[in-house]
Amino acid sequence: MTVPAADPPVPTAAALIVAAGRGIRAGGEIPKQYRMLEGDAVLTRTLRAFAGHPAIGQIVVVRHAEDADLFAAARPDTRQPLVDVIGGDSRDASVRAGLAAVDDAMDYVLIHDAARPLVSPDVIDGVLDALACHNGAAPALPVTDALWRGASMVSGTQDRTGLWRAQTPQGFRLGPIRAAHAAHQGGAADDVEVARAFGLEVAITPGSEDNLKITAPDDFARAARLVKGQQMDIRTGNGFDVHRFGPGDHVMLCGLAIPHTRGLQGHSDADVGLHTVTDAIYGALAAGDIGTHFPPSDPQWKGVASHVFLTHAVEMAGERGFAITHADLTLICEQPRIGPHAGAMRAELARILRIGADRVSVKATTSERLGFTGREEGIAALATVTLVAP
Fold first, then answer.
1. What does the pLDDT profile of the chain (390 residues) look like in tens digits?
2. Do 307 and 172 belong to one domain?
3. Is 103 domain-assigned?
4. Which of 7, 128, 236, 271 has a CA-to-CA distance to 305 between 20 and 30 Å?
């Protein structure tokens, strides 16, 4: 019995990114939200964090009036509508401008600092989950260090019980937070202060040490270390395939017609090399095999060129956020000789995989005259591929 796929979650929240500040303390010649962090602008990373969340249905960026060109360069492609508005003279004034641009169809709004580019899906999920029961919710970390009072000298200590380090996104039901900001006189440190002044309850949700706010020059170095150290999703897939010899004057191997006294038999063009690499990619994605996507019982695939299968696997990997970083193919046969064609096979395989030839290996071995390959009854192939999602 086929189980129907679950419907994707309906977006219910807008992300409001506050990016109108000047960021003077962080140094640099441009505002910190537009400075580069490991190849991307800080703001670009922040926007992607929300664009990739299934509950986010709109993104509103509040920017400075002078930053149009910087924003255009940092703006990523997003599946959601992304609008930018001009901020005010203070943070709370900027937030009010952003709230006015939020679509009324949104249930919630998540207000986030542009300078927190490493916010995780877990932090966002925690805020959204709490909003099901509360008018407001925000992530925080408990204060664990001893606290002193004083200037250059310690003049006293402060009990840290019940103290928290506030983070963003600070989430609210849209109507109540609009009303809270409309009633506020200004000067709030954050949106939780605005909400509480209006009488809204705000739940504390789990924060993350990685969800740092870039404020000082050293914070860029710390953020860069975190970006480099974030765990990547690395997948390895294996493929194995066999095709027997039959009538013909050539064999298809890695997309090339190699002259031979016999051909390979199969429902398609029987390219055992491309089939094996294709199955390795599907395996890394846990997405079945060639037969899953191109059933041999379907006449439309009879005689089709095998690059069609491999291209499908490559595109599926890309759609799931993976890059193919390496492919290693071993052909097992006595004949034809693979060595003279290995370079051209690598080039063609690299072209279809959309990677450099220096990331593709094609090699051959015999089975020392043992087994069906040793008796020259067919060709077998083994392949391993590596996929990486940042």
1. 344 444 445 569 999 999 998 877 777 789 999 999 989 999 999 999 999 999 999 999 999 999 999 999 999 999 899 999 999 999 999 999 999 999 999 999 999 999 999 999 999 999 999 999 999 999 999 999 999 999 999 999 999 999 999 999 999 999 999 999 999 998 899 999 999 999 999 999 999 999 999 999 899 999 988 887 665 688 999 999 999 999 999 999 999 999 999 999 998 999 999 999 999 999 999 999 999 999 988 989 898 999 999 999 999 999 998 999 999 999 999 999 999 999 999 999 999 999 999 999 999 999 999 999 999 999 999 999 999 986
2. no
3. yes
4. 236
Which domain CATH number covers 151?
Answer: 3.90.550.10
178, 258: one domain: no
Strands 263-264 and 233-246: antiparallel
Q: Is 111 labelled as part of a ligand binding site?
A: no
Q: Where are the alpha helices (DSSP H) in 161-289?
A: 174-183, 191-197, 217-229, 272-284
Tell me whether residue 375 is annotated as binding. yes
pTM value is: 0.61
The number of distinct structural domains making up the chain is 2
Residue 218 among known ligand-binding residues: no
Cα 209 to Cα 222: distance, rounded to the nearest angstrom:
11
Instruction: For residue 290, say whether it is annotated as part of any ligand binding site.
Output: yes
* Cβ 233 vs Cβ 388: under 8 Å: yes
| 365 carries a ligand binding annotation | yes
Question: Which domain covers residue 152, as residue numbers?
Answer: 13-229
3-state SS, one letter per residue, for 210-221: CCCCCCCHHHHH
| Domain termination residue (choose one: 229, 262, 279) | 229
240 is in an annotated binding site: no
